[in-house]
Amino acid sequence: MKRRTRARELALQFLYQVDIRGREVKDELDTFLRAEEADRTASEFAATLVRGALEHRDEIDDHIRAVAQNWEISRMAVIDRNVLRLATFELLFRDDIPPKVSINEAIELGKRFSTANSGGFINGVLDKVKDRSKSRPAPPAVVDPLVAPEHGD
């Protein structure tokens, strides 16, 4: 399995825990990642995704609400809601990930961990988020320390 795919799985699992147990669990991220993943690159990318999704959660949820017609976020399946949050974070704040990759990875997560209908639902919502975000000025990107240039490069 590719490192980034594995990282997204870990991020989804942790966001699910936060959604179920509450935000105080976010302090357990490093312990969770150490227990679940030996590959440092995958763990660091997962941590970047989780922290970004949590930091921007209100804005992310606003984007999802704006395009998910007739769906309240609180009424969505927990897995679907967190797959959408994770992918919306990537779409809005990660210029280093092509939108198509974020959407395809999210669809696969939905199919793998949620219901048979999740892939289509996730695809529809994220396509609208992507289209809507193109018409807005880009927010500041989150810098991934693993790919950021060093000073003096």
Automatic annotation (TrEMBL):
- RNA-binding among the record's keywords? yes
UniProt signal peptide: none
Among the record's GO biological process terms, what is one? transcription antitermination
Q: Where is this region: Disordered?
A: 131-153
Q: Which Gene3D superfamilies match?
A: NusB-like
Query: Keywords of this protein's UniProt record, alphabetized?
Result: RNA-binding, Transcription, Transcription antitermination, Transcription regulation
Q: Does the keyword Cell inner membrane apply?
A: no
Q: Which HAMAP family match?
A: NusB
Q: Which family does it belong to?
A: Belongs to the NusB family.
Report what the protein is called.
Transcription antitermination protein NusB
Q: What is the native source organism of this protein?
A: Engelhardtia mirabilis
Q: What is the lineage of its organism?
A: Bacteria, Pseudomonadati, Planctomycetota, Planctomycetia, Planctomycetia incertae sedis
